[in-house]
Amino acid sequence: ARAGRGWCQGLNIPNELFLTLGLVSLVENLLVVATILKNRNLHSPTYYFICCLAVSDMLVSVSNLVERLFVLLMEHGVLVIRASVIHHMDNVINMLICSSVVSSLSFLGVITVDRYITIFYALRYHSIMTQQRAMVTMASVWLASTVPSTIFITYYHNNAILLCLIGFFFFVLVLMLVLYIHMFALARHHLRSISSQQKQPTVYCSSSLKGAVTLTILLGVFFICWGPFFFHLILIVTCPTN
């Protein structure tokens, strides 16, 4: 019992930290969106998906900023709001955050699949990923992301809903892992063929190492950025009192 209480100790994180992280993330994603919209050379399905990913992350940042700003103002007595209004605002913000999280993870998966098609079906890519299909994909992701957010807010006390979100995170993680490893394996195969023809094993080893490092960084950044949020959800399920 004592060990269980130690495992479920609460952790208080300053609101100022969340506010700072939200501002940094907002600026970064605004720059990404502005760059893609301004540069006509980037007006392709791949960059449309990246733009949607940036918008999703930007909505997470905005939701976080609004929530933390209201909390700070109320903590310092600057803003006084009725409990019923706070409850409704909290529901709206949580719905927006949940929708943004699902859409962000979904677009990460879409970008991975898009890269996979680019490598394995290079000659047919433009016929497979047309502008129309890209638009339908983006609209479908945005529409589908609103459904789980509504269900989450309605049944947020149900652990099954949280487990579905956690499961979705690991699904995207496994999808990225499998597809990127497959792409990396194909790249190594091509490098091995080129190296054997040119008799330059050093180039092959160097390129393979760079590819492995890139793959590790890519998946590592994904896990580091999203891991804490879903670890938090796991703690909610396992330690509901804290």
What does this entry look like structurally?
The protein is 85% helix and 0% strand. Helix 4 (83-120) runs antiparallel to helix 6. It has 8 helices and no strands. The two termini are 15 Å apart. The chain has a domain at 15-156: Rhopdopsin 7-helix transmembrane proteins (Up-down Bundle). The chain has 242 residues and is an all-alpha fold. Belongs to the G-protein coupled receptor 1 family. This is Melanocyte-stimulating hormone receptor. The chain crosses the membrane at residues 17-37, 46-66, 92-113, 134-154, 160-187, 208-237. Residues 28-242 form the G-protein coupled receptors family 1 profile domain.
Brief account:
By secondary structure, this protein is mainly alpha-helical. It has a domain at 15-156: Rhopdopsin 7-helix transmembrane proteins (Up-down Bundle).
Quaternary organisation? single chain
The largest pleated sheet is described as:
none
Strand proportion: under 5%
Topology, number of strands: 0
Overall pLDDT confidence: 80
Helices, by number, come to 8
Low-pLDDT segments, ≥5 res:
none
CATH architecture of the domain at 15-156: Up-down Bundle
Output the CATH class name of the domain at 15-156: Mainly Alpha
User: Could you estimate the helical fraction of the residues in percent?
Assistant: over 70%
> Helix-strand pattern, N to C?
HHHHHHHH
> What is the CA-based Rg, rounded?
22 Å
Assign the CATH superfamily of the domain at 15-156: Rhodopsin 7-helix transmembrane proteins
Structure class: mainly alpha
Distance between the termini: 15 Å
Principal-axes shape call: elongated
Question: CATH topology of the domain at 15-156, anyone?
Answer: Rhopdopsin 7-helix transmembrane proteins
